[in-house]
Amino acid sequence: MLSRTADHLYWMARYMERAENTARMLDVNYQTSLLPQSAEEAEQGWRGLLSISELTWGFREKYQDFSAKNVMDFMVRDESNFSSIASCLRAARENARAVRGALTTEVWETQNQTWLEFNRMIKGTDFHRDPSALFEWVKFRSHLSRGVTVGTMLQDEALHFLRIGTFLERADNTARLLDVKFQSLAGDFFGSNAKEAQEVDFYHWSAVLRSVSGFEVYRKVYRNVIRPEKVAELLILREDMPRSLVACLNEVVSNLQMVANDQSRETLRRAGRIRADLMYGRIDEILATGLHAYLTQFLDRVGDLGVGISRDFLVPVAA
């Protein structure tokens, strides 16, 4: 496969996954902001969301206060923000158009229709009247895109590069979400025995789980009260949790093996090493050494892995 074609497929998948992840985080943060809380606590939640995506600096350049309306406008329809849902869906569609011949008609039409319909939806007043409806729609369109891709495309190199992009992006997002939320909530969870404080923590940890469609999964696996260390275990080490770090790396490695070439041995080795560390890791050891340090290192390693994939398979970045 031409490296340019692989590049477009890889980034098409990454941008579509990023749009879904952004919608998930915005939806949960919006729902949490409706709970009884002070204005300062609500603002902290929106600040944390920008921190997850490393967009605080860009937001400050355009807005004065961290209100729900400002943050949602910035994260949903501001195309000057390259991580906004609008920017991601546009980039996914442009990458799909560039490799129209490598996609089935159903995949292309899904990408194109998503972009056109999204533009129609954000130009009206529906978005601010019911933000959750738009976020659910974005998640649905992302699910549809993945389903159509797996259900209609030949299982060749094109599909493998799409899958690599999807799961590398998902691993990055899950690690960022867990890191920021754990730092902001874990201290309060462990530091208070007040019933009302524990109830607030329950809702916040439930929100974290819902942002990765993990609430029902948690209940099925652990069958007890929501504990931060169990949330971390579920989202890092459980292979049967679709959005966990180890599940994402399993997919990345298996698809990398299918497209491997002579120059990708080191990249495949690094991916396998990350997966092995996750497969044989234990949550008590991770927490003992520090979850923040562990996740920061994981993000660095995933970033290096992305660089290796670009170097070995995709279009070289111009100097």
- Cα-atom Rg, whole angstroms? 20 Å
Low-confidence stretches: 187-198
Tell me what portion of residues adopts beta-strand conformation. under 5%
Number of helices: 16
The string of secondary-structure elements, in order, is HHHHHHHHHHHHHHHH
- For the termini, the CA-CA separation is 24 Å
Largest pleated sheet = none
Briefly note the structural class of the backbone. mainly alpha
Task: Give descriptors for this structure.
319 residues, mainly alpha, 16 helices
Explain this structure.
There is one protein chain. The chain has 319 residues and is mainly α. The chain is globular and about 55 Å long.
Topology:
Blueprint: H1 3-33, H2 39-52, H3 56-60, H4 68-76, H5 85-98, H6 105-123, H7 126-129, H8 131-152, H9 157-191, H10 195-211, H11 215-222, H12 228-237, H13 245-259, H14 265-279, H15 283-289, H16 291-313
Helix pairs in contact: 1-2, 1-4, 1-5, 1-8, 1-9, 1-10, 2-9, 5-6, 6-8, 9-10, 9-12, 9-13, 9-16, 13-14, 14-16
Short description:
With 319 residues, the chain is mainly alpha-helical. It has 16 helices and no strands. It has helices spanning 3-33, 39-52, 56-60, 68-76, 85-98, 105-123, 126-129, 131-152, 157-191, 195-211, 215-222, 228-237, 245-259, 265-279, 283-289, 291-313.
